[in-house]
Design brief:
- About 40% of the residues lie in helices and about 20% in strands.
- With about 500 residues, it is of the alpha/beta class.
- The longest helix has 20 residues, at about 20-40.
- The protein binds manganese (II) ion (MN).
- Manganese (II) ion binds near residues 305, 306, 333, 350 and 449.
């Protein structure tokens, strides 16, 4: 469902006519080569397309307008091989609606000490040409990523790849539709927020539906569809004996399959990219959708429980950001603590809805009671999550702005088996430790729900926040509480 190769980044080189046609010709050749190298580099998830060298304000303006209207163009990489007087860029950059990264590189890696002459100097002058371009970005207050280094260096290529993922995720949000079945869990604060402001600032649109709309889709699921889905369950998972065709709860398995078919059809028909449910509003549904939600997340849908549309959007965003990378993305909640000499840990889980993409083993498909919601026992996949570095991110609304906060963590094996825990789970050590991480998170107002990923890094989120104009706070091995509180106070002033 997520295909980053549909996207293009345009490689745009600035110059001027002063140097004569021969130099411009060389600039174009070099640019073509750099663009091709970036396109072919392993970290670049999207296509990089060379665009003719720009030497006039009219051409720059035209290019920016074309980028705005090209649906598959998710941003520009700009580079001034020679000197490109930056007043030429004002009109174009003023109109540009797509993100851009400024690549500060030079075609020649090293100075040819014995041969260097004025011709070489005139061709390889990005050292000052890019500074002229940088000035106008700053003068105009434009958000952008600056990447410095030789274009063949792995570090430069991975920084651009990382930024491209952030740009792709931003593109995915623009015009994205999120289906919200029911409203917010009553009285919960952090899952609320200004949906109109989110649409203006972040580009996605939250559509409200009564749960009856979903019930109708569930009822319309055909027997053939339900049969096929039931068989998929039996094929893909270690299914509990009671749920097997001869078991006493097989009817519940079929009912769960019917719910998934209905939910899936509803989301596909409406072209939704994410959705929310709430256990307080399930009229007409036999079970709270658990298994269905887990599988839809696996397939790329964003999800938020209890009406949490901001986290649903964030899970989707991080799915797009990490498409094709190793490690999954899931909706998550900081559930229970383990205060212990072996390190203070967080057990993350939810009532049911943890994404299969982070499973370390073949999930067990079980049916067990849910002590909340007052419905029939719901189906769910149970598994241990992968171990290793991960990140939990939360998007909150502070009244005058959105804030993105993230904590880098290390997922570890559980100290002992959890034979009675009826849900999928992950156990982690927050960085730098629980004491600092949880205090910083709470000072920052981070939510109890997160989007949790082993593939997305703080770097991806930082680039994304820059593109989106979001406040971004990361809690990691370098976090100190007093510094973090200063950052919060300064940001408060900055964003006023
Ligand atoms: Mn929750």
């Amino acid at each position: 469902m997520i295909n980053l190769k549909q996207y293009e980044i345009w490689f745009v080189t600035g110059s001027q006519h002063l140097y004569g046609p021969e130099t411009i010709q060389k600039v174009a050749e070099h640019s073509r080569e750099v663009a091709a190298a970036l396109a072919a580099s392993a970290p670049m998830p999207v296509n990089v397309v060379f665009k003719p060298v720009l030497t006039t304000p009219e051409a720059i303006r035209q290019l920016c307008l074309e980028a705005n209207s090209a649906a598959n163009c998710i941003g520009l990489i700009t580079w001034m091989h020679t000197f490109s007087p930056a007043k030429m860029w004002i009109a174009g950059l003023g109109l540009l609606k797509k993100p851009f990264a400024h690549l500060h590189t030079q075609y020649n890696r090293e100075i040819p000490w014995a041969e260097i002459d004025m011709d070489f100097m005139n061709l390889n002058q990005s050292a000052h040409g890019d500074r002229e371009f940088g000035f106008i970005g700053t003068r105009m207050g434009l958000n952008r990523k600056v990447v410095v280094g030789h274009w063949q260096d792995e570090e430069v290529q991975s920084e651009l790849g990382e930024w491209a993922r952030a740009a792709a995720a931003w593109a995915d949000w623009q015009g994205a539709k999120i289906a919200r079945f029911g409203d917010n869990m009553r009285d919960v604060a952090v899952t609320e927020g200004d949906k109109v402001e989110a649409q203006i600032q972040l580009g996605y649109d939250v559509y409200g539906y009564g749960v009856g709309d979903l019930v109708k889709a569930v009822k319309e699921a055909t027997d053939a569809e339900v049969k096929k889905m039931t068989q998929a369950y039996l094929d893909e998972y270690a299914v509990a004996p009671a749920l097997q065709p001869a078991g006493e709860k097989y009817a519940s398995l079929v009912e769960g399959a019917r719910i998934e078919v209905g939910l899936r059809n509803f989301l596909q028909a409406g072209d939704f990219k994410a959705f929310t449910t709430t256990f307080e509003d399930l009229h007409g549904l036999a079970q709270l959708p658990g298994l269905a939600v887990q599988r839809l997340m696996r397939d790329g849908y964003g999800f938020g429980a209890e009406g949490d549309w901001k986290t649903a959007a964030l899970v989707r965003l991080m799915k797009v950001m990490s498409a094709g990378l190793k490690g999954g993305v899931s909706f998550m909640e900081d559930y229970t603590y383990h205060f212990s000499a072996s390190g203070n840990k967080v057990l993350g889980a939810h009532m049911l809805e943890v994404c299969e993409s982070i499973a370390s083993n073949k999930p067990r498909l079980e049916i067990l009671p849910l002590s909340i919601g007052g419905k029939a026992d719901p189906l769910r996949l149970i598994f241990d999550a992968n171990t290793g570095p991960a990140i939990g991110a939360s998007l909150i609304e502070l009244g005058n702005r959105f804030r993105l906060v993230a904590n880098v963590v290390d997922v570890v094996p559980t100290d002992a088996p959890l034979p009675k825990l009826p849900v999928a789970h992950a156990l982690w050590l927050p960085r730098p430790n629980l004491k600092i991480a949880a205090a910083a998170w709470i000072y920052a107002g981070g939510a109890h729900h997160t989007s949790f990923s082993y593939a997305v890094t703080a770097g991806h989120l930082r680039d994304f926040a820059e593109i989106a104009g979001l406040e971004f706070l990361v809690i990691d091995e370098n976090t100190r509480i007093e510094d973090f509180k200063h950052q919060l106070r300064w940001n408060q002033a900055f964003y006023k």
